[in-house]
Amino acid sequence: MTRWSEGFVAVDWGTTNRRAYAIDAAGQVVDSDKADAGVLAIAPGGFPAEVAKLRARFGGLPLLMAGMVGSNRGWIETPYVACPATLADLAAKLCHAEPGHAAIVPGLSILDGDRADVMRGEEVQIFGAIALGAVAERTTICHPGTHTKWIAVERARITDFRTIMTGELFALIRAHSILAPLLAGEAVPGAAFRAGVERGFATGALGAELFSIRARALLGRSEAADAPSFASGLLIGCDLRSGVPDGQDEVVVVGSPTLTRLYAEALRHIGRRPREIDGAAAFVAGMRAIAETIG
Amino acid sequence: MTRWSEGFVAVDWGTTNRRAYAIDAAGQVVDSDKADAGVLAIAPGGFPAEVAKLRARFGGLPLLMAGMVGSNRGWIETPYVACPATLADLAAKLCHAEPGHAAIVPGLSILDGDRADVMRGEEVQIFGAIALGAVAERTTICHPGTHTKWIAVERARITDFRTIMTGELFALIRAHSILAPLLAGEAVPGAAFRAGVERGFATGALGAELFSIRARALLGRSEAADAPSFASGLLIGCDLRSGVPDGQDEVVVVGSPTLTRLYAEALRHIGRRPREIDGAAAFVAGMRAIAETIG
Question: Which residues, including other chains, have CB under 8 Å from residue A165's CB and lie 6 or more apart?
Fold first, then answer.
């Protein structure tokens, strides 16, 4: 049998990108790789060859994979584990796609009366942040992204979560809406961003606040350069309004530094204490913890 | 001088469509025309020729035009009239593009401290609904569309309004989002629509509620055919939450019958009394009232 803890490759295989980290027996990242080979870039039936190439790239080490590779658009659909769930629950339900050589970490689901939600990939980062000792015993963690997740954690168990389509809505509005010509620039965490956060958090009225960007531009009441930052702040403010629990002071934000920086600024602006955790480091820590669990 | 009241053509010239109605001295629509010749379909510099063709089509009658034809993407940019505004204010600020032959009705603007908003075209329908005797002395009117308008009216004066990008967001999500494959069908005002209205009106959390459509589909907790109606209800519920005033029982909804039907059902579901007015009839009534004012 493979001893995963003797060395493996942790693969974060998402919709549009794939990142791989070779981890040695001491738990150190000794090699890594990043490719545009997200699951949508792999032809149907093309996964076994792609996996073999990846294994060869890393000298035949076993591959522990998470993310959309386990979805119905990925290699092998791996059933969701229902919350509440621990890291040990994920490890017990791995899909051993090529036993001893390749395994897929399942995602998590919520099914509670009328509520339904799913995630794939973020759960590894959350358990990693817990393994890094960065998470309070009972808290809600923010994972910003295309589909931002707000994840309730209790004693190292994910008890609940909620997805908000913040990043996707921002991308749609930027690419295809009547506001697109105004939103071409970069969003930066300055005064316009904070003004957007304030509006979004106060009203949550995304559709109404968005149009004001165009009206202010038409009426000469705004700096064109401010529009992308205001829009980003608005969307993140609406996101916080839905996601951040009342009365929770410290909010751990796990994800890509570009996004955690914006969310941290927004959280500070509404009076919370953000703590940023790099998503890549959290992913490696989470995969190591799973590898240690399966031995 | 032309006597507009002796007969003219009322032209509703929007972004993607153009509708024209020949109105005789008795105020009857005696001919009409609909074309895909929205302002975006007219090449820069192409408006005088297009206007001449339209005038010829209607036997040389003078043209009274409203909508995006007066925007910076239209024929001649016609400055907004600031609210509060009456129909007489619009008539006094017409852009006489070809004196006696072609005039453009200005749009309306709001500039009040931090608030900014604009409209072009809907104002004619609102004054038309007032002319038809369909509007209470003091009320807020809904004009649903790509950019839904909620318009406050006091004694035949438009005092305030607010734009919500409901139709545009629905179109973007349907065409380009991860939900697109689920939203191809038609939205109908049944149980799934009302469930969406209820969620949107209760929470306003568009980004969060939207993702639940995908999660329920992935977890087998919804009928695929219900998704477009639920999504439409959700967006309209969020719209009502921002737009419909507390304590206002009757809500006049002016616009295309397809949309006023959905908004009417949503309003009934949250306990209001909708009154639907056909936007085309309101447009004709509004343009007639302007023509009578200018003589």
Answer: A146, A147, A148, B177, B178, B207, B208, B210, B211
